[in-house]
Amino acid sequence: MKDHTKYQGVIPAFYACYGQDGSISAEGVKALTRHLIAKGVKGVYVGGSSGECIYQHPDERKAVLEAVMSEARGKITVIAHVACNNTADSVELAAHAEACGVDAIAAIPPIYFHLPEYAIADYWNAMSAAAPHTEFVIYNIPQLAGTALTMSLLRTMLQNPNVVAVKNSSMPTQDIQMFKDAGIAARGQNGFVVFNGPDEQFVSGLAMGADGGIGGTYAVMPELFLKMYELVHKGEMDAARALQYQADRIIYKMCEAHGNLYAVQKEILRRMYGLELGGVRAPLPGLAPADEAVVAEAERMIREAVAAL
């Protein structure tokens, strides 16, 4: 049986890092990778929603992953999201990710056109075939992708032995249980992983059986999610829930900004740690002058919550 402990824990979704001219900043990528390693996270999820993947050229996504791997190889788990909105580019990124030595590749379903399940399976299996020695994570985020992972599609994908996990970003925690049950039926008790996706329900996702979490706000406050993970595994659920509520209030505050959430978080990281990660790529909206108060308040809330741990 494969060892899946490398997926158990807190795995921040990696932010896109840009220079002043809007191009990929390899130095920013490396600095953020070092920062997260120092914080003690289990791994990083590169090139997903938080990485603004749908607004980047495949060559840019390759450059990001190469910069991450230059700092992360052998130190933390790296999962590379390789899906593009066509199979050819996705296959190219999958092969590149395997050549870089990642622990796993991941993919959402194709977006925009509503495809039959067999076509989605063909799309995912083509990526997996291009990275035959690398494990595969299905990314279920129906509210953005427009397609939900069904049990029949999951069972089809479980015929591929490289499929070892689902990153579940649907809101019902019941989905975690259903996906976990199907994985156990196919792989055995410890042979399949489910990640909690929605950051606002990290504790409830773990309680339902998630092995860990991949989330877009972890990187701006990893200490809180690491502590939640620890408390849940100690059985200290009241304390875990109280900390989840604190993290949720911070998320709600950051979401009050006119600018995109990732722009807010990158600005907070700049203020707190001096990380120069740039803004966000259009058409995502950057920070507006009126967002100053939101950013300042969210930063204060994070500092106070971390100090109280």
Q: What are the key terms here?
A:
alpha/beta; Aldolase_TIM; globular; 8-stranded parallel β-sheet; single chain
How would you describe this protein?
The chain is 48% helix and 12% strand. It is α/β, with parallel strands linked by helices and 309 residues long. It has an eight-stranded parallel beta sheet. Strand 3 (77-81), helix 3 and strand 4 form a beta-alpha-beta unit. Helix 8 (202-208) runs parallel beside helix 9. The protein is globular and about 50 Å long.
Largest sheet features = 8 strands, parallel
What is the global morphology? Answer: globular
Order of helices and strands: EHEHEHEHEHHEHEHEHHHH
* pLDDT averaged residue by residue: 97
Give the class from helix and strand content and strand pairing: alpha/beta
Which range best describes the helical content: under 10%, 10-25%, 25-40%, 40-55%, 55-70% or over 70%? 40-55%
Radius of gyration: 18 Å
The tally of strands reads 8
Individual helix count: 12
Uncertain regions: pLDDT < 50 for 5+ in a row? Answer: none
The order of strands across the largest sheet is 1-8-7-6-5-4-3-2
Beta-sheet strand percentage? Answer: 5-15%
Q: Gap between N and C termini, in Å?
A: 37 Å
